[in-house]
Specification:
The protein is α+β, with helices and mostly antiparallel strands and 758 residues long. Helices cover 35% and strands 26% of the residues.
């Protein structure tokens, strides 16, 4: 049975079981109702069992089949919390289910589970349940820090959502030493009131050893960091220069003036741009993208590895590329002064930013200059005479690019595209990976030029191939949930803003809010709240619009060196343009694209989480030797347990409510502020405060502040000294607690009180 036929039958069975008149039936009853021939009945049983294993349907103890949502059950992904409880994120619907710590029943963060609803908590959309079945495990191995006792070890997972330690019998320590970072293979999954058990299969190194911190993150997110031998061999066999044979059938654009514009440290140059102003005043924009599919053939070791990785991953001290450096940094990279194969899109644009014509074709190009964002910015905004002289042949192009980019940005603004203005953190590390500087990275006109040109090119390509009616990969962003928009409107109301039409919101309404808060103290906090209230963009083989960009058609086409979705649509496009996309190939793509898009979306999320985790780690490492120092910061968010403060260098720390001892402060959820009961003092988002760094814990990415005060500073130093002296005694108590928990005992009441305080 083909994958497509299997999927069709699954959907028909699901549709049948979701009908209002359906009651759970046994296999024999389903065979009769569905009129299944005798010879096909074993296949039906196999299909039903497969669907039950996936959690699509439920098989009851009485061997009746039904869909979980009609049986009071929820199928989804378990999201753990550091404090032991968690949530089930349903496959169908948006209503998360709260799972208390005593109802997790052995589930671990990331597992696919089935939960039974027990009750609805006060307030809408608050549901509580318990996990009754684990469909599939997400964590075959776990990265963490080893804590040794005389007869056993425990590994504390690095990922803070994996709350339980992993018990390691002495015979499975495999030479690991106290405090080392290790990879653990799970041998026995956790059960109710009992830890998971495993064996150490890899020692990453001592915690303070150079590079171990980042490698721990890489392994924790299952990011492949070494290429298999067959992949390396294929990469090394690729020619290092473009040959005459390669150029056959391509449009020769080597005489067209063009540049690349990237960051200083970029090595994988995907895109080059050219610009002309036509006699009628229109712009002719050329976007020239590396033709990776010429070298990465479908089904090859290179292609399979690229799909496995899904994307390149960027850390402060290294890049883990989707393709080996022989391709990503060399023959595929659009390096200056050499011939390269490309996929070119020539777009004619009028003075209002409207596309009046376009052409898509394979080409051979020759990039004139490798420009950086910094140098283009200095030419356009700082009138740098030395750089203007150096690049005098391109000055007119740069000014035209700026003009066109501003026109395109204004057009996107008019249609309602959402533009968040978040400053990025630039972490600079030394040769050992130690952070030596953290600074804000501000987007400039040079960044905007490339951003606007790539956005437009992606839209043009997506619309062109949508109307051809062929299988394709789209970048989609669904409309926000109306209830989340209502909650957002309530929060905005506390700041004096109102979200228009929040029940059926248009992106333009959200952009209006972003415009209103521009430059205000609460700008970053509200931008963050708005972003979290929206859906997450993803890849799909089914077309729908992109809400955030207010774009009817959108795909990722411009980065095939570092993103697999771009690479595979290049392959589809080339087959269509060459007339090779026959019915057989169309059916092939229809069958594989659902899995490809899901895989790419998952790897994108893992890469983003790993990159964010690494940045947070490096920020914490940078602040370790800043304990006791005073800084000025801005209150970035308010919670029931304290307030977060962001420093000028983007580092964020927590002022715990318990440390604010000049008064009793209460959290006003509606107004998002802390109010002193006696003094009436109010802390709001955007307030400037002076803080003292009191504690930094890189392992948990946690930075603690207190409000700057000499007396509080002295108290904090005394507390740190006391904690240091009692650390040894606490270690003995922790070992006792761990062994009791592992065998299923409850441990001491004192221990539980301490957990609650944390």
């Amino acid at each position: 049975m083909t994958d497509t036929l299997m999927e069709e039958r699954k959907q028909k069975i699901l549709a049948f079981m979701r009908e209002e008149s359906y009651k759970p039936l046994k296999l024999s009853e389903l065979e009769v109702v569905l009129d299944v021939p005798q010879e096909d009945r074993p296949a039906l049983k196999e299909l039903l069992d497969s669907m039950a294993e996936e959690g699509l349907i439920i098989k009851t103890r009485k061997e009746r089949y039904g869909v979980p949502e009609r049986m009071g059950l929820i199928v989804g992904k378990f999201q753990g919390h550091a404090r032991g409880f968690g949530f089930v994120l349903p496959d169908i619907g948006d209503d998360d289910v709260f799972i208390p710590s005593n109802a997790i029943n052995g589930a671990m963060h990331g597992d696919r589970v089935i939960a039974r609803l027990n009750r609805t908590l006060p307030g809408e959309r608050h549901r509580e349940g318990e996990i009754i079945q684990i469909i599939s495990r997400a964590n075959k191995s776990i990265v963490g820090k080893l804590d040794l006792s005389e007869h056993f070890g425990f590994v504390k997972p690095d990922h803070n959502r994996l709350s339980g330690d992993i018990f390691i019998p002495k015979e499975y320590l495999n030479g690991a030493k106290q405090g080392q970072k290790v990879v653990v293979q799970i041998d026995k999954w956790p059960q109710k009131n009992r830890n998971a058990e495993g064996r150490i299969i890899e020692i990453l190194g001592d915690e303070d050893e150079a590079g171990v911190d980042v490698m721990s993150i890489i392994r924790a997110y299952n990011i492949p960091y070494e290429f298999p031998e067959d992949v390396i061999k294929e990469a090394q066999a690729v020619p290092t220069t473009v040959t005459e044979e390669d150029m056959k059938g391509r449009r020769d654009l080597r005489s067209l003036r063009m540049v690349t514009i990237d960051g200083e440290d970029a090595r994988d140059l995907d895109d080059a741009v050219s610009i002309e102003v036509l006699e009628n005043g229109n712009f002719r924009l050329g976007v020239h993208i590396a033709d990776v599919t010429h070298y990465v053939k479908e089904g090859s070791a290179l292609d399979n590895e690229a799909l496995l990785r899904g994307t390149s991953v960027y850390f402060p001290d290294r890049v883990i590329p989707m393709l080996p450096k022989e391709l990503s940094n060399n023959i595929c990279s659009l390096n200056a002064k050499v011939d390269r194969l490309a996929f070119s899109v020539m777009i004619d644009i009028d003075q209002r930013g409207n596309v009046v014509d376009h052409d898509i074709f394979e080409s051979v190009i020759h990039v004139d200059e490798r420009m950086t964002y910094t140098n283009v910015y200095k030419i356009l905004e700082e009138d740098d005479q030395e750089l203007k002289e150096r690049y005098k042949d391109h000055l007119k192009d740069f000014y035209n690019m700026k003009k066109l980019a501003l026109i395109l940005k204004e057009k996107r603004r008019r249609r309602g595209a959402i533009d968040f203005d978040f400053d990025e953190a630039k972490v600079i590390v030394d040769e050992k990976g130690k952070p030596i500087e953290i600074k804000r990275y501000k987007m400039t006109i040079a960044n905007s030029i490339i951003e606007e040109f790539m956005l437009l090119c992606n839209e043009v390509v997506s619309e062109h191939f949508f109307w051809m009616g062929i299988p394709f990969v789209y970048r989609i962003h669904e409309d926000p949930d109306p209830e989340k928009m209502e909650n957002l409107n309530n929060i905005l109301g506390t700041f004096g803003y109102r979200l228009k039409g929040y029940r059926d919101v248009h992106p333009k309404a959200l952009q209006d809010i972003i415009n209103q808060i521009k430059g205000k103290p609460e700008e970053k906090a509200i931008n963050t709240i708005v972003l979290r209230s929206m859906q997450k963009a993803r890849y799909s083989d089914v077309h729908t619009w992109h809400f955030g960009l207010a774009a009817e058609y959108y795909s990722h086409f411009t980065s095939p060196i570092r993103r697999y979705p771009d690479l595979i649509i290049h392959r589809i496009m080339k087959e269509q343009l060459s007339g090779k996309l026959n019915e057989s190939r169309i059916e092939h793509y229809r069958s594989i694209l659902p899995g490809v898009t899901q895989r790419c979306s998952e790897r994108e999320r893992a890469a983003e989480d790993a990159e964010r985790d690494c940045i947070d780690l490096k920020k914490a490492e940078y602040m370790v030797d800043k304990v006791g120092e005073q800084f000025e910061g801005t209150v970035s968010s308010i919670t029931a347990f304290g307030m977060f403060v962001e420093l000028d260098n983007t580092v964020e720390g927590l002022i715990r409510l318990s440390s604010m001892d000049d008064d009793y402060y209460t959290y006003n959820e509606k107004a998002l502020c802390l109010i002193g009961e006696r003094t009436g003092k109010i802390y709001r988002i955007g307030d400037k405060v002076n803080v003292l760094v009191t504690k930094v814990t890189p392992e948990t990415r946690q930075i603690d502040f207190i409000l700057a005060d000499d007396e509080e500073s002295d108290d904090e130093e005394e507390e740190c000294l006391y904690l240091s002296k009692s650390k040894k005694n606490r270690k003995i108590d922790e070992d006792k607690e761990r062994i009791l928990r592992h065998i299923g005992a409850k441990g001491s009441k004192k221990g539980h009180r301490n957990d609650r305080k944390k």
